[in-house]
Design brief:
The chain is mostly helical. The longest helix is centred in the middle third of the chain and has 34 residues. The chain has two domains: 55 residues; 95 residues, no CATH class. The protein contains eight helices and three strands; from the N terminus they run βααββαααααα.
Length: 192
């Protein structure tokens, strides 16, 4: 059994400012390696002697590596911020073209779209339900604009870009069909 106060895990090293490359380059193999009996994982737990870690942290090589890793991290954050700004600018600049349909055709397509989604027959159809269906159909018809978000998959700013795009789509629907404006505002508020 090892004394946990004299060892540092890989996660503990990261908290102390170590990158994975620094660990493999400066510390090499772990001092203790095995399975963690408290977790159901096949991934090995690697522990490094705290005294050895502290000795390496006092060297000038560690200071230089930590500084370089900090610069690389800052450059990565800067690049992510540039991508986020570029996507937001593209969303703001992209004209959103809403299909203009006669009222009867929009209703027909909204009902058909609703049935394709698996809804039952339109028994007890109210005016409010038809408005919701029409906005739903138009939102679906404009889903091609979602490709503007492709450069932000999993990156910082995706939620902000999605909100901006959704708001612009609902604003475009409301401008094209003023009788749907209230429902568009309601959906935008709910999805915010």
């Amino acid at each position: 059994m090892t004394d946990r106060t004299t060892y540092v895990s890989l996660a503990g090293l990261r908290v102390r400012g170590w990158s994975d490359a620094m660990v493999s380059e400066m510390l090499g193999q772990a001092d203790v390696q095995g399975r963690d009996p408290r977790r159901w994982s096949l991934a090995p737990v690697r522990l490094y002697l705290l005294a050895r870690v502290e000795a390496v942290e006092r060297t000038p090589e560690f200071a230089a590596s930590a500084e370089a890793a900090g610069r690389a991290g800052a450059a990565s954050l800067l690049a992510a911020e540039r991508r986020r700004r570029a996507v937001l600018a593209a969303i703001r600049a992209e004209p959103i073209e809403v299909p203009r349909l006669p009222a009867a055709e929009l209703e027909r397509r909204a009902v058909r779209h609703r049935h394709l989604l698996g809804a039952r027959g339109p028994g007890g159809l109210t005016a409010g339900a038809m408005v919701r269906w029409q906005v739903g159909y138009l939102r679906h018809a404009l889903s091609r604009y979602d490709t503007l978000l492709d450069d932000l998959y999993g990156d910082t700013g995706r939620a902000e870009a999605e909100r901006l795009l959704r708001r612009r789509v609902y604003e475009a629907i409301a401008a094209a069909y003023p009788h749907l404006a209230h429902e568009c505002r309601r959906r935008a508020a709910v999805e915010r």
